[in-house]
Amino acid sequence: MSEGTRTVTARGSATSVIFKAACPQCRGRFELAAGALRLAIGASHRTTFYSFTCPDCGTAVRKPAGERIVELLTGGGVRTLRLHSTV
């Protein structure tokens, strides 16, 4: 996942996928295991996002997740929360 292009790259086997990420606060770049990320899938692109805590500065980071990012994160074993409408 990178700030500029909002792409997700992953490497490793299905049991040990590592994702590249960046923090918009401190500009740190690092690798995170699937367990360090959370994915929320909502009814629209505005309510679909992934989040993590920056290991460098401790900032809670939340970024939008398009279809490709959702596919990569779910395929990599990231814990997913499906948000439902209350209407």
Q: What key phrases describe this protein's structure?
A:
single chain, 87 residues, mainly beta, 4-stranded mixed sheet, 3-stranded antiparallel sheet, 10% helix, globular
Mean pLDDT: 85
Helix content: 10-25%
- In N-to-C order, the SSE pattern is EEEEEEHE
Let me know the largest β-sheet: 4 strands, mixed
Radius of gyration: 13 Å
Which structural category fits the helices and strands?
Answer: mainly beta
Q: How many H/I helical runs? A: 1
Find the count of extended strands (DSSP E, 2+ residues).
Answer: 7
Strand order of the largest sheet: 6-5-4-7
- What's the number of structural domains? 1
Low-confidence stretches: 1-7
Percent of sequence in beta strands: 25-35%
Distance between the termini: 33 Å
Give the overall silhouette: globular
General description of the model:
With 87 residues, the protein is mostly beta strands. The chain has one domain. It is 10% helix and 34% strand. The protein has a 4-stranded mixed beta sheet with strand order 6-5-4-7, covered by helices on one side. Strands 1-2-3 form a 3-stranded antiparallel beta sheet, with no helix packed on it. The N and C termini lie far apart (33 Å).
List the helices and strands and how they pair.
Layout: E1 10-11, E2 18-22, E3 29-33, E4 38-41, E5 49-53, E6 60-64, H1 67-75, E7 79-82
Parallel strand pairs: 4-7
Antiparallel strand pairs: 1-2, 2-3, 4-5, 5-6
State the gist of this model.
The chain has one domain.
